[in-house]
UniProtKB/TrEMBL annotation:
Belongs to the BioY family. GO terms for molecular function: biotin transmembrane transporter activity. The chain crosses the membrane at residues 12-30, 59-76, 82-107, 119-140, 160-177. One of its GO terms (cellular component) is plasma membrane. It comes from Microbacterium esteraromaticum. It is found in: Cell membrane. It is a multi-pass membrane protein. This is Biotin transporter. It holds the Pfam family BioY.
Amino acid sequence: MSDAPRPLGADLARIAVFAALIVVLGTVMVPVPGGVPITGQTLGVMLAGLILGARRAPLAILVVLVLAAVGLPVLAGGRGGIGVFFGPTAGYLLGWLVGVVVIGLIAHHRRFTWWRAGIAAVIGGILVIYLFGIPIQALVTGVPIGPTALSSLVFLPGDLLKAVAATVLAVALRRAYPRAFPAQARAVHAV
C-alpha cells in the first residue's frame, strides 16, 4: 500500500464531512437540568478523532466552532452565536478540540487496533471532554464542582455507548475503506 500523501482536496472533503456529521448529530438531543443536553455530537467527535487522526480531526471541530461563533445554528438544539462560548457548554466545546487530538494520538499510535480505538474514545471522547466541561459548567452556573460532577454522571452511560459505537464503526470502516484513515494507520491492518 502506498504511503503517498493524499491530495489536499481529499483531506478538506473529509474534514467537511466530519464537520457536517457533528452538526447533524446535534439534532439528536435530550435536554437535562443544568443546561448541558445529551446529544449525538460527541459520537461525531469520537469518530472524527478515530478516523481523521490528531492532525485533521481538530480542523473538523474548528469548522463547527467557527460556524457556531458566527451565529449558525450548528450546535445541539439549533444553538449558535458567540454566547455559546460563555455558557454552561463552553468547556465541553473546548474539550471537543482537545479530545479529538487525544483520541487521534492514542488510536493512531503504532497500530490501529480495536482496543486502542476503544481506549482512545473513552479517554479523549469522555474523560478529556469532562475535564474541560465540568469545571467550566460549574463556574458558569455557580454550582460547586462536586455537585456539577455528580450531576454529569447522567451523561456517562450514553457516552460509554457512544464510545462503543464509535469504536465499532471506526474498526468496520478501517477494514472496509482504509484510505479514510491517516497513512500510518493504513500501513498495518487492524487487529
